[in-house]
Automatic annotation (TrEMBL):
Start and end residues of each stretch annotated as Disordered: 149-170, 212-261
Lineage: Eukaryota, Metazoa, Chordata, Craniata, Vertebrata
Protein name: Uncharacterized protein
Protein family according to the UniProt entry: Belongs to the CFAP97 family.
Organism for this UniProt entry: Patagioenas fasciata monilis
Biased composition (Basic and acidic residues): 217-228, 237-252
InterPro entries referenced in this protein's UniProt entry, alphabetically: CFAP97D1/2 (IPR038792), Hmw/CFAP97 (IPR029488)
Pfam families from the UniProt entry: Hmw_CFAP97
Amino acid sequence: MLSLNEQKQLFYFCVGLRKKIFVHSSPCQTWPTRNESHRGPAGEPVVRFRDAFLLYKMHRSYQPVLPCANKYLQLKWDKEKYEGHKKRIQAAKPSVDTSSPAIYNHLHLKLGKLKLEEDRHSDIERENRVLLEKISRIMRTKGQIDNKNDYKAKSLNAEKRKQEQRRVSQENRVILDRITKAQPHYQVQRWHEDWQRAEKYMASIARYPRGQCKSHSLKEEQFKEKTPKRDRKRNKQLKEESMNSKMKEREHAHHGKGKNN
C-alpha cells in the first residue's frame, strides 16, 4: 500500500510533470514485499513502472456505484440498462399534445374563391374579345351609326308638369289676395285714443307739471351746441365755485346764530 506522498508523486509522474522520482524498471531486481519500504539509493521513494502504469489507467476504468463481484459484467449490465433507458425516453409520449393542429385543405385552397376569380377573368376576356371584334369591324367598314346630334329632347310628362306649375301659381296668387284684403282684428286708432286719455289722467294727478325735464334737457343741449368746450368747462368751474361760496356763507351764518343763542 502506497503512502500519501508516494501517491502524489505517482500522480505527478502520470500527468508528465517533472518531479524527482526514481522509477525502478530493472527486470532482474527483486521487488520488495508489501511491508518493506520502497526507497532508492538516496532515500527517495521508488515506484515501479508497472505500478505507475496500472494506477494511471485505474482512473479510467469502470467504477460501479454499488459493490459487485465482477466489474466487467456489471459494466455490461449497466450499459444495457442505460441503453434501454434511453430508448424508453425517446419512445415516451408526452402527456400534453404540443403538435401542430391539423391542416384542412379547404380552408387554405378556397376553391370557391378560385372559381369566382376564374369566372371573372373569363368574363373579362370574353368582353375584350367582343370589343376587339367590334373595333376591327368598324375599322374595316364605315360603321352603321351616324354621329349627328339632330335629336330633340322629348319628355312624356312635360305638359303635366306645366299644368301643375300653373295650378300652384294660381293658388299662391289667391292666398296673396286674401292676405292683402284681410281686415285687421285689432284697432290701432282705439289704442292711440286710449293712450292719449291715459296721458291726460297722469298729467292731472302728477305733482309737478309733466315735460319740464324734457324742456330742461333740451335747453342744455342747445347751450352745449352754442358754446364751445372751453367755455363750458369755465362755466362749470364758476358754478362750482359759486356753490362752494354759498355753502360756506350758510355755514358761517349757522355758526353765528348758534353763538348768539
